[in-house]
Amino acid sequence: MSHNVLDLSNVYSAEIFLPTQNLTKLDIRSNMHQPIHFDKYLIYPDHVFGVLSELSFLGIDMMPVPQFGRGFSQITNLRVLHFQSCYLASLSNTTFQMFSYFVQKLSLTNCRLKAVRTDVDVLLPFPNLRVLDFHGTFMHLRRALHLLHPYMYSNFTTINFGHVSDDSIDSSELPFVTTITPDMMKYLKTICVENLNLSNNGIVDYEFESLFTFDRPECLQTLSFKGNRLLLLLQ
């Protein structure tokens, strides 16, 4: 059902998925058109999706200010949540609160139309997360790193924060040209992560006891800094 013109706000009837309640994968990405207004809420039709309690994968478009109702809490087997056609403007502490506690992979990529505002506890509803992919979602590296605070001393397969900063969202508060500080790394450094991508984020330097001070460096298998202007002095 992906790559069609199925508008989330008016196409889905309450009964549409009743005959297919045992679905384990639903992909309805790339259906929504770019909105005109980026401050407008979209209330996702949770009563439609709530009958799909067996879903383990949900692929869906992300609108500027999304609201997911109680029906999504009934998708108790959900493990992979993938957003596409992303027009996101704001993530609040309540955005994901109705999704399953057991989600292991969250993919929210290529949200490039606005500088995404983020509340600090956005990811609290996902304590079992093992893959986090924000590649190409312009929120700034500092904001992305601070969202990791629920995962101190946890294990991750992949954290992809590639190109979350961009010169198109450069500001005095969140400059594109970035020096990594200990404060920015205070959560990430505690995480046992196998694959870490910090590429294309305007990184030019790092302060003492910041970038390469992982508590569990033996966990790292791949590490990407490509596309930055970082001079690594190895002794």
Automatic annotation (TrEMBL):
This protein's name: LINGO
Organism of this sequence: Mytilus coruscus (Sea mussel)
Source taxonomy: Eukaryota, Metazoa, Spiralia, Lophotrochozoa, Mollusca
